[in-house]
Amino acid sequence: MLLQFSIFRGTFPLAVALAMDLIGPVASRAQPAAAPPPSLRDTLRGEVFDEHGKPMAGVIVSNNHARLWGQPVNTLTDATGNFRLNGRPGYWRSGTLIATTPNHEHQSYVKVHEEHALPRRLEIMLKPPRKTFVTVVDGAGKPVSGATVEVIGDYSSVAVSATDGAGRAELWFPADVKIDWVLAFKDDVGFDYHENYKAFPTNDRGPLAEDIRLTLDGARPDVVAEAETPDGKPLAGIGVLLWTVKKPGKLSYANIGGSLSTRRLTDADGRAHFAFLPRLMAEGVSFLVHSDDYHATESLHIPTGDAGPLHITLKPNVTIRGQLTFADGSPAPQILLQAEGNGSPHYFRGFARSDEEGNYAFSVYADQTYAVNVLDDDWAARSHTGEQVQLGDQPHVVNFQLVPGTLIEGNLTIGPDHAPAVGETATLLQEPQFVRWSNADEQGYYRFRVGPGNYKLRFPSGMTPAQLDVKVNDQASIVNDAHAERKARDQLQGTVRAGEDNAPVADVVVSGESVEHNGHAGFHAVTDAEGHFQTERWTDVMFAIARDVAGNRADTALLVEDDKTCNFKLAPAATLVGRAVDETGQPLAQARVFCAISMPDDWQLPGDEPGKPHNNRKVTLQLAANADGTFKVPAVPLGVKAELYVDSQKGNSGSKDFRAKEPGEFVAGDIAIKGKDPAAPR
What is the DSSP letter of 30? Predict the structure, then answer.
């Protein structure tokens, strides 16, 4: 059997839920390229038992990675608690399984990753689940019945329900899954989501609240996605997924590409409808396409203020296939391979596993140059790079003869005692585009088995050495260690207070940005009822700001590399008030407004020239203008430079600088865009 699946750029774990049966694949009008034979099946076996080790019969085991692609795969455990899950190759190999009793009294959640291992047999222990109640209301606070409610955990769908006449829904989900978001939506009413974290970016997830309230405060007019071939033929049965969406006032966008409920299939005219997108958005909306046989040729994004439609051009996939053999010519079964293309904006990265005859196959994106490599603990082969795969090609054949290969290995350590840098990632690259990763184990050990060739070995940020050139011939082993004096990322916590009594302040947004490394993402955190916040950050010198939007107060701080604590004392601040307009003075509804707050002028870092402006030392806020183009930016510290910038589909404004000296409103006036070249591509 041939096993294959692919990962889009901006990869996300694919969804699982038990609440809905999506329809199967729909034939499109255009003819797909050749793909691995659909008759081939792949079987996953396992056993389900309770907390006391007793086998459990009649348990539903579901792989909704396949559901996301329109291929529902479910089974029941037999009298001995055993199950077999059959599906087309690759469908269950990357995703999540959920096992649940019919009455939902016990559930469990298991992640499966093809690129990590080939599980021979799974053991699943069921536990009592957790539940949450969700109340959904409209902008006037009235209950919304018939709204879809979904729980997203580990970027996958783990529960779906609908609200009753009182706008309430009860959802059960596995106790051991970390919940990211709870979302609710209804066509023509709106969309909202609950963030189950107090900082971003972070992997920390606390227990989900037992009662959640979501507000659907208006929907945009129906946004239509139109899928077609390069020659304009509509494509039916293409899965279009809502990927990221951000509402005003949220810490982050919701990354819900693993949602089952927001997925739409294109109809016979190649159209899919999204009538629930929120009326107000802080950022544009991005989408993903799922298809066995086609791939998108461009990024799928609708900016704020754009009513669509979303035009999706899809090309047929083509096939790379071949055979793996040992030196004596015998077939090499169950060997994992990786293929990687170099296209833009969507490059292909996928994995396949050879069958008992040593055969494998990838269904890949056309018109890209590929590298195909063997990934195995015990065997390797010389990489095939520069494989040109064009639209309309016959299956592209790439064969491999396996060799023992060379082990590139070493230890990653951190701190003065050279402790193992557990979980840190070593990266191996081979030109022009192939990349692999190895996470350090409990001893800090990493490893790659490779065939002959030239490689670049990169270590995590802050480690020495940062990168090495590695030439592999027939060596048994090449050892390279790396060390860092401190963690590249570490925890930061603190408290925000205000007033003469130093009272803690809740719901303050604390943000920070690196002042030296533009490629390092900043952080955002929200204080709890005790005024406390905790987040993860790069261990860089950072400029941080705490903003109490409700009280129009703010404070700033400078963090150095080893700081693990930062406290703020709020002071009265200003609110910048303005209006986004076009070249003729007409308001720009939903235009994106940016406000970059700079580090105070008198703050100096080692090596700074006195009086030199802090051009790249700022925290940038983003919001959306109202329907009449007006906007307010509250909690701007006094005396610092604040740069306002407006961007819309019609053009951008360039930045305008302001310095507020007194608390209260500071009128910035109209911020006018300059316009775009009408001949420029959209």
Answer: S
Query: What are the pLDDT digits (tens) for 416-433?
Result: 999 999 999 999 999 877
pLDDT value of residue 116:
44
Kind and range of the H or E element at 608? none
105: alpha, beta or left, given left = phi > 0 and alpha = psi -120 to 50?
alpha
Task: Measure the CA–CA gap between 259 and 276, rounded to whole angstroms.
Answer: 14
How far are the Cα atoms of 213, 219, 222 from residue 188, in angstroms, in the given order? 19, 5, 8
Is 299 a residue whose pLDDT tops 70?
Answer: yes
**What pLDDT, on a 0 to 100 scale, did the predictor assign at position 482?**
97
Higher pLDDT, 38 or 158: 158
**Peptide bond before 309: cis, by omega within 30 degrees of 0?**
yes
**Tokens of residue 394, six digits:** 């016959």
Q: Could you give the CA distance from residue 457 to residue 505 in angstroms, rounded to a whole number?
A: 47
User: In which residue are the tokens 């009822």 written?
Assistant: 529
Q: Are 288 and 259 in contact (CB under 8 A)?
A: no
Predicted local distance difference test score (pLDDT) of residue 284: 86
* DSSP letter, residue 518: T
Sign of CA dihedral 422, 424, 429, 433: positive
Residue in 508, 594, 514 with CA at minimum distance from that of residue 554: 508
Is residue 371 helix, strand or coil?
strand
**444 burial level (CB within 10 Å; 0-12, 13-18, 19+):** buried
CB 459 within 8 A of CB 440: no
What is the per-residue DSSP string for 102-157?
TTSSSEEEEEEETTT---S-EEEE-B--EEEEEEEEETTS-B-TT-EEEEEETTEE
pLDDT number for residue 165:
96
Distance (Å, whole) CA 647 – CA 121: 53
Residue 17: the pLDDT is: 33
Tell me the per-residue pLDDT of 321-357, one tens digit each, with 9 for 90 and over. Answer: 999 999 999 999 989 899 998 876 678 888 888 888 9
> How far is Cα 431 from Cα 320, in angstroms, rounded to an integer?
19
Three-class SS of residue 67?
helix
Residue position matching structure tokens 């205000």:
498
Quote the tokens at residue 386.
């520069």
State whether the Cα torsion 551-555-561-566 is positive or negative.
Answer: negative
Query: Which residue, chain included where needed, has tokens 């081939």?
Result: 40
Q: What is the pLDDT of residues 499-528, one digit of tens each?
A: 999 999 999 999 999 988 878 889 999 999
Structure tokens at 80: 């001995």
ω into 606 cis (within 30 of 0): no
Nearest alpha carbon to residue 553 among 572, 569, 530, 532:
572
Q: How many residues does the chain have?
A: 682
Residue 672, CB-side half-sphere exposure with 13 Å CA sphere: 6
CA dihedral for 226, 232, 235, 241, sign (positive or negative): negative
- Quick check: 91 pLDDT over 60? no
Distance CA 283, CA 434 (A): 32
Does residue 229 contact residue 30 with C-beta atoms inside 8 Å?
yes
Percent share of the chain, pLDDT over 70: 87
Evaluate the omega torsion of the peptide bond into residue 610 and state whether it is cis, within 30 degrees of 0. no
Per residue in 367-380, pLDDT (tens digit) is 888 999 999 999 99
**246-276: per-residue pLDDT in tens?**
998 898 999 998 898 999 999 999 999 999 9
CA distances (Å), origin 589, targets 40, 250, 616: 53, 20, 29
Both structure tokens of 479: 């050892």
